[in-house]
Amino acid sequence: MNDHPAAAVSAESSLQPPVADLPFTDLTPARQTAFGMDVRWWYALAAVLAVVAGVSLVLAWKTQQRVKAIEQELVRRLDEGRMQSNEAQLLSKQSQDSALATAAKVALLEARVAEVAIQRSQLEDLMQSLSRSRDENMLVDIDAGIRVAMQQASITGSAEPLIEMLKQADDRLLHYNQPRLEGVRRAIARDIDRVKSVGLIDIPTLTIKLDEAARMIDELPLLASALPRTVPTKSKPVAAVEPSVANTPTGAASVPKAPWWQTWDGGWSALTERVWSEAKSLVRVTRIDHPEAMLLTPENAFFVRENLKLRLLNARLALLSRQFETAQSDLQLVQSGLNRYFDRSARSTVLLGQLLGQVAAQSRQVNVPKPDDTLAALAAAAAGR
User: Fold this and answer.
1) What b/e readout covers 129-138, taking b as 16+ CB neighbours within 10 angstroms?
2) For the residues 166-183, what does the mean pLDDT come to?
3) Is residue 342 helix, strand or coil?
4) Which of 141, 179, 187, 139 is nearest to 377 (CA)?
């Protein structure tokens, strides 16, 4: 069965002429159609290739643009990185400098801390070497305060600082309430009574008196301008008149007239007394120990008063500074000036002299007694511990 088709084929092939001998124009229509299809295929392929080439060109151009943008971004970032690296170098240098400065400060602080530690150790050693008990510290404080008060009393001449210090010491011992310190309190009480028994000088009162004396100097009469004394005249007693005679309109006519010789004697005595009083007012006899006091002019009188005021001011300053000898000498000079230039019989001069005498009597040095009992009791209490 297989031999028949092959034979048919071979017979058919033997019958058809060979293709190579036919010319190209003698193609069959079917062959021409296939060739036309091939040409169109090549056109389509060329168009596809052209589109692909165009797309490739566009893609290449976009890729190039993108590469350029990437290059620009890369350059920009490289510049920024370079700037940041420079800033980082600068900051690192600054950090290094600050680290060196901090290290130097830390070294200095460590040296100071070491010095403070040494000083603290020395202070602790000193405190341990000088440590005392509470009682001993209080006794030492009281003793030092009393000695300072004694110096103040000797400088000022007043016992007030010493009295106040003794009272404060007594209050401290009272609050401390130690039976073994009762002897110290008894000694303080004795010393307070002994110091108070000494008369204290009232400096404020004395200064007020000196200010009053300076004010009174302007009112004192000088010997050069002293006015004569006026002797008060004795009033004659008036005879009582009977009411019946005085009330009647004819009472004056009923009074008997005195004789003419009595009226003459009364008028003559009145005239004589008047002449004598006028003569006494013209002549005045006064004992003056210093004749220059009567020759003072008004200008010199002003300077005399001001000089006495300055003396009183010096005495006031001397009292405030506790210089009692200077105050006494100034008061004596003021008293001698009063006796020399002013009328000693005037009441204001007498009052001023008495005031100056009171100030001079009270301006005296007071020796403040020392609190020996208290100091001895404090020493015994400190030694007994």
Assistant:
1) eeeeeeeeeb
2) 84
3) strand
4) 187
Tell the burial category of 185 from Cβ atoms under 10 Å away from its Cβ (0-12, 13-18, 19+).
Answer: middle
> pLDDT digit string (tens) for 75-87?
988 888 889 888 8
Q: How far is the C-alpha of 269 from the C-alpha of 128, rounded, in Å?
A: 108
**Any bridge partners for residue 222, and if so which?**
342
Average pLDDT, stretch 8-15? 43
Burial class (CB in 10 A: 0-12, 13-18, 19+), 362: middle
Which range has the worst mean pLDDT, 25-39, 180-194, 236-250, 258-272? Answer: 236-250
Q: Please, which contacts does 283-292 make with residues 24 or more away whose CB atoms are closer than 8 Å?
A: 284/228, 286/223, 286/226, 288/223, 289/340, 290/340, 290/341
Locus of tokens 């404090």: 378
Contact between 348 and 221 under an 8 Å Cβ cutoff? The reply is yes
Of 5-9, 128-132, 188-192, highest mean pLDDT: 188-192
pLDDT tens digits for range 290-330: 555 555 667 777 888 899 999 999 999 988 877 888 888 99
Closest by alpha carbon to 149, among 126, 168, 123? 168
Q: 3-state DSSP call for residue 196? A: helix
Alpha-carbon span 183 to 141, nearest angstrom: 17
Residue 194 banded pLDDT, cuts 50, 70, 90: confident
Check: CB of residue 302 under 8 Å from CB of residue 225. Answer: no
- In 116-235, which ranges are E strands? none
Q: Which of 195, 132, 187 is nearest to 162 (CA)?
A: 195
pLDDT at 143: 87
Q: For residues 138 and 19, which has the higher predicted lDDT (pLDDT)? A: 138
Residues 6+ apart with CB under 8 A from 202: 362
Burial level of 329, CB count in 10 A (0-12/13-18/19+)? middle
Q: Give the C-alpha separation, 102 to 94, whole Å.
A: 12
Q: How far is CA 281 from the centre of its chain?
A: 69
